[in-house]
Amino acid sequence: MKVFIEKDSDKDVYDGILDKVDDWKKHADWADVIVFDDIGFGDIAESLRASGKMVIGGSRYADKLEEDREFGQNEMQKAGMSVLSHWDFADFDSAISFIKSNPGRYVFKPSGNTPSGQKGILFLGQEEDGKDLIEILEQNKKAWARKIKKFQLQKMAEGVEVAVGAFFNGEDFTA
How far apart are CA 155 and CA 158, in angstroms? Predict the structure, then answer.
């Protein structure tokens, strides 16, 4: 098994466990199965599938679910899932006006495949009137507007975020 790790900050993952390569494409013919565990590889994954390769993960649809928050929310609703109230914006002044007219706690979430420096931008409002989020948006709107073209404000919900994952060994799901 060979692994390619793109991000410099993650290069130490699997140290001493898996054989690492600097260019996964050079090993595509060698591989029986290619696994993509992140977004942004949908076109490549679908091209590999079309050429007959076995691929796990990655698709244009999965990329769109993750990169286009409005689309993802609509798909979840179509599947019968409950989603929090949310509003989509293409400019920061409209969002600021919205919060001023509709005071409350919101979560700021960029949409799209934002540059790596913006990937971690997520703000969970703490003040019931939304003034903390207004302040963050006011202070950062010029810099963020160059990189974040669409974003979503989602009604804040108290709770614990959970995720579920499973691994398949070819015959059974394993823990």
Answer: 10
Whole-angstrom Cα distance, residue 73 to residue 67? 11
Q: Which amino acid, one-letter code, is at 15?
A: D
Query: What CATH code would you report for 83-155?
Result: 3.30.1490.20
The tokens describing 175, both together, are: 């823990």
The predicted-structure confidence for 82-96, as pLDDT tens digits, reads as follows: 999 999 999 999 999
Mapping DSSP to helix (H, G, I), strand (E, B) and coil, where does residue 111 land? coil
pLDDT at 153: 96
Whole-model pTM? 0.67
Q: What is the DSSP letter of 155?
A: E
Q: Which runs of E-coded beta strand occur in 106-159?
A: 106-110, 123-124, 151-155
First-to-last alpha carbon distance for the chain, in angstroms, is: 20
Instruction: Work out the pLDDT band at 167, boundaries 50, 70, 90.
Output: low
Q: How far apart are CA 119 and CA 9, in angstroms?
A: 14
CA distance 66 to 68: 6
User: What is the rounded CA–CA span in Å between residue 67 and residue 158?
Assistant: 24
